[in-house]
Specification:
With 377 residues, this protein is α+β, with helices and mostly antiparallel strands. It has 11 helices and 14 strands. The longest helix is centred in the first third of the chain and has 23 residues. 50% of the residues are buried. Bound molecules: adenosine-2'-5'-diphosphate and magnesium ion (MG) (3 copies). The site of one magnesium ion has 3 residues, from β4.
Length: 377
């Protein structure tokens, strides 16, 4: 990582959280045991970890050397980069290669539409090179070389609609593209749905400080087996747990860095009502779920502007990472998130995340604050 980016990362990840005694010291080391009394997805989890780690490697390379021509604008005005496409192609390739005997369905954010235009051919060549260089950096795939057409096809295997039946992978190849472009936080977020439920999740957060003064975390969870984190360069995993704070005055809360993504005035109203003393910690992407799963903060509040529809890939991996670490994720009405409805989440305004002790107080404060805001308009 360039020193410029590293400095910015450490600046934007609050020093009180960075230097706080890491929760790692409290935690027991990794056990590979399958979840008791439930199905094991160990093979799928291993494939997902490998896919997300390799995709993160591609993203890190691009973030160090992002070019003007690497960034395009999507029809909803959000940015997309060569790394978003490259990451999606790598994950799709690795999952299919590692799990050849399973039927493959992938619900992912990007599609190849814009890359098939005449003027995008140079960009497509750059993505193809990035994908091949990344695969070549892993011994298992050193013989694989994808053509531009293979890359387009790998991206487009993410067009599945998901739903309540069967197995579907859910991918955000870069969550927090705006953070990625700023040199800040972002995540590669990958989850597996089985019969409409999230059964495993992996969050690669290349700019999130990990233990032992390293940067880059890989969080992973399997239903019933807890959440673990290891550094992206492969240090041994440790179990994590959400904050046990019961007094909201001692809690700190996460929200989006981008004011366009979440109503900061509503979160501050809620925080005031709860008596939260610390200022909000604003970071991009599902890295917030990862940080919360290891107790860096106690609450995550997300209230998109009216009309915004939440997508399943923005919350599937983060949700299991937090719930398996002992946390609770609901919409503003207190309902669990339902990932079985296709590409979108169908929910009551907002998403809130905390530990089970704080949740009743938080829900009450959320309800009151929403009502107050509505009556003041
Ligand atoms: N107008 C918007 N409102 C809310 N979220 C958005 C909006 N536009 C994009 N997003 C998505 O919200 C998430 C970022 O949230 P955060 O603010 O917590 O980083 C990303 O998944 C981002 O997509 P993307 O995956 O393209 O970055
Ligand atoms: Mg996007
Ligand atoms: Mg996203
Ligand atoms: Mg994205």
């Amino acid at each position: 990582m360039s020193s410029v980016i590293l400095t910015r990362v450490l600046c934007t990840y609050p020093s009180n959280l960075k230097t706080k005694k890491p929760p790692f010291s409290l935690l027991r080391t990794f056990a590979t045991a399958a979840p008791v009394g439930s199905m094991s997805y160990q093979k799928e989890l291993n494939a997902a970890k490998k896919a997300a780690s390799l995709a993160a490697r591609l993203c890190q390379k691009v973030q160090k050397a992002i070019l003007q021509s690497d960034v395009q604008s999507k029809s909803d005005k959000s940015p997309v980069t060569v790394a978003d496409y490259g990451s999606q192609a790598v994950v799709s390739f690795v999952l299919e290669r590692e799990l050849p005997s399973e039927s493959f369905s992938l619900v992912a954010e990007e599609d190849s539409g814009d890359l098939r235009n005449e003027e995008a051919q140079e960009t497509l060549q750059r993505i193809t090179k990035l994908v091949n260089d990344t695969l070549a950096s892993d011994n298992t795939y050193s013989g694989s070389s994808l053509s531009a057409e293979d890359v387009l096809a790998a991206i487009d295997s993410g067009k599945s609609e998901g739903g309540p039946h069967g197995r579907h992978w859910v991918l955000d190849p870069i969550d927090g593209t705006k953070g990625f472009l700023r040199g800040d936080q972002y995540a590669v977020a990958l989850a597996l749905l089985d019969e409409g439920k999230v059964v495993l999740g992996v969050l690669a957060c290349p700019n999130l400080p990990s233990s032992h003064d390293k940067v880059g975390c890989l969080f992973f969870s399997q239903a019933g087996a807890g959440t673990e984190v290891q550094s992206l360069d492969g240090s041994p995993p440790v179990k994590v747990h959400v904050s046990a704070i019961e007094n909201p005055e001692e809690a700190s809360f996460f929200e989006s860095f981008e004011a366009a993504h979440s109503l900061h005035d509503l979160s501050s109203r809620i925080a005031n009502k709860l008596g939260v003393k610390a200022p909000p910690v604003r970071i991009d992407s599902q890295a917030k779920y990862g940080a919360l799963s290891r107790g860096d903060g106690a609450i995550y509040l997300r209230f998109p502007h009216k009309g915004y529809r939440e997508k399943i890939w923005d919350h599937a991996a983060g949700t299991i990472v937090v719930t398996e670490a002992g946390g609770v994720v609901t919409d503003a009405g207190g309902n669990p998130l339902d990932f079985s409805k296709g590409r979108y989440l169908d929910l009551d305004t907002g998403i809130i995340v905390t530990n089970p002790k704080l949740m009743p107080m938080l829900l009450k404060a959320v309800r009151e604050s929403i009502d107050e805001k509505a009556s003041s308009l």
